[in-house]
Give the backbone structure.
Amino acid sequence: MGEYLEAALNLKSGAGPFNIEVFAGDPKDNNAHLFFEGSMKVLKPYIDKGQLVIPSKETSFDQAATKDWDAKNATARMEKLLAANPGTSYAAILSPNDGVAGGIREALSKGYSGSFPLITGTGCRAQGY
């Protein structure tokens, strides 16, 4: 999913800066840690260069974790991020699966006025909902 965002945002060519947020899965699930580490390995160099900007500055697994992979927890976190950064337009949201992506989408549908961002997720439509 990190590689998908790298390609979709044309990061290798130097495109950006783009606002993104990152989500991870449940802290008790080892797969959640592996997914997040793999995605961030691809995205972190672009964050360091300023091509990707995370307005919340929540870049660690613990900050991005979604307890129990629960869509409601993802909705609550995304609503918090939107409230903390009003008027921010996002190019993409890194999500580890469809459930979390659905929660993110729910929050965006309530209180987001920008162009709908790319949202990753296992089986999720990468172009957004």
Remarks:
- The longest helix spans residues 30-49.
- The radius of gyration is 13 Å.
